[in-house]
Amino acid sequence: MAGTARETHVVLGAGPAGSTLAGELARRGHAVRLVARSAPVAGTPEGVVFHPGDVGSAEGARAAIAGAAVVYHCVNVAYHLQVEAMPGIQDAVLAAAEAEGARLVVLDTVYPYGPTGGEVMTEDTPWRATGAKGRMRAALDEKYLAAHREGRVRVALGRSADFVGPGVLNSTLGGAVFPGALTGTEVIGLGDIDLPHSYTDIRAVAAGLATLGEHPEGDGRVWHLPTAPARTTREVFRLIEERVGRPLDISVKTEPRPFGPFDQVFMDAYAELFYQHTEAQVMDSTAFQDAFGVKPFALEDTLDATLDWYRAFLASRG
After folding, report:
1. What is the pLDDT along the chain (318 residues), one digit of tens a residue?
2. Sign of CA dihedral 246, 247, 253, 254
3. By Cβ atoms counted within 10 A, which residue in 1, 95, 122, 209 is the most buried?
4. Residue 184: inside a domain, yes or no?
5. Measured between alpha carbons, how far is residue 210 from residues 8, 52, 230 in Å?
6. Is 136 among the domain residues?
7. Last residue of a domain, one of 209, 224, 239
8. Are 34 and 19 in contact (CB under 8 A)?
9. Domain residues for 14?
10. CA-CA distance, 213 to 211, in Å (whole number)?
11. What CATH number is given to the structural domain containing 212?
C-alpha cells in the first residue's frame, strides 16, 4: 500500500465481535475506525482509531461512517430491546451507507432459520422463524438483500453460530462456563447437552467479516462464517476438563431461567430461542470456506485461547 491512500474501513459496535474485527482489519493493513457509544472494555485495538458515536439516528450514522469505503455493522442492543431497536438502527445505517456510497458487511445470526428439527443449517436452509426475534432478524435480512438487489447499497451478510473465544462473556459458552471451569465452581449447560451444537470462534467471525469486506464478489447474499464441526456440549465440557485438570461441576438448566451473567430480563427475552438447546444446532460453513479459503479454528485451539484469556481476565479482577 506504500504510496497510495488507504481506504477507510469503519466498524460499528465495540463488543467482542466489533473489537476483534477492528483489530483483524488493522493487522491486514487497513485504516480502521471503530465506532460505538463507549470504548471497548479491553481498550481500542492497536492501529485502530476509536470514534464515539451512536448510529441509532440518521445523523449519528452519517457522522460515524463519513469517508468509509466499507462499513461493518456489528451493533447489538440488550436482548429485550432488540425487536424494537434493531430495525431503526438498520434504517439509519443503510441510509448512511447509501449516501456515502460505501459497501456494507453485516454480522448476522442463525435466528431467521427458526427451529429446524436438528437438520444441518446451510445458506439454503429455509427461513422458518416463528418467534419475534427470529422474524425480526429475517425481516432485516430481507431488507438488506432488497437494498442490494435494487442497487442502493452493496451488502454482504455473514452469519455466525453462538460466539466463543477470547473476550466473549455473554454467550452460552462464555461467562457461565469458563470462570467456573477455572475456579472449580458451577458450570452451566443448557437444555440437552448431548446434542451437537455449533460454536463460532470470535476470531473466525472477525476473519470472515474482514474477508467479505475485502471481496466484493461475495456481495448480495448470506454467508456462514467459518465454524468448526459441531460437537455435543458435553464433549466440549470434556475437552475443557482435560485442559483445566479437574472435573467440571456441571449444572444443566432444562428451562430458560436466570443463570451466570444472564438475569431474568434477559432469559425472559431469550425464552423463544431456547429451542436452540433442545434440538441439534449444526451450522455448515463449507460454502464460505470453499469460496474464500478461510478455515475455522479447531475447537481445541479455540478452547486453549479462551481459557488463556479467562485466566488473565479473572486475575485482573482479583
Report:
1. 443 457 999 999 999 999 999 999 999 999 999 999 998 877 899 999 999 999 999 999 999 999 999 999 999 998 899 999 999 999 999 999 999 999 999 999 999 999 999 999 999 999 999 999 999 999 999 999 999 999 999 999 999 999 999 999 999 999 999 999 999 999 999 999 999 999 999 999 999 999 999 999 999 999 999 999 999 999 999 999 999 999 999 999 999 888 877 889 989 989 999 999 999 999 999 999 999 999 999 999 999 999 999 999 999 987
2. positive
3. 209
4. yes
5. 13, 22, 23
6. yes
7. 224
8. yes
9. 8-162+200-224
10. 5
11. 3.40.50.720
Q: How many domains does the chain have?
A: 2
Q: Is 15 within a domain? A: yes
Q: For every residue of 190-230, which 3-state class applies, written as one string?
A: ECCCCCEECEEEHHHHHHHHHHHHHCHHHCCCEEECCCCCC
Distance in angstroms (rounded) separating the CA atoms of residues 69 and 6: 10
CA angle 242, 245, 246 (to 5 degrees): 100
Residue of 81, 110, 80 lying closest to 276 (CA atoms): 110
Cα–Cα distance between 291 and 212 in angstroms, integer?
A: 11
Q: Which amino acid belongs to residue 81? A: L
Compute the chain's Rg from CA coordinates: 19
Q: What angle do CA 160, 162, 168 make, to 5 degrees?
A: 105
Q: Is the same domain home to 124 and 175?
A: no
Contacts of residues 275-279 at CB distance under 8 Å and 24 or more positions apart, as own/partner, are 275/114, 275/115, 276/162, 276/191, 276/197, 277/172, 277/190, 277/191, 277/192, 277/195, 277/197, 278/191, 278/192, 278/195, 279/115, 279/116, 279/117, 279/118, 279/195
Written as nine digits, the cell of 124 is: 439454503
**Residue 95 belongs to some domain of the structure:** yes
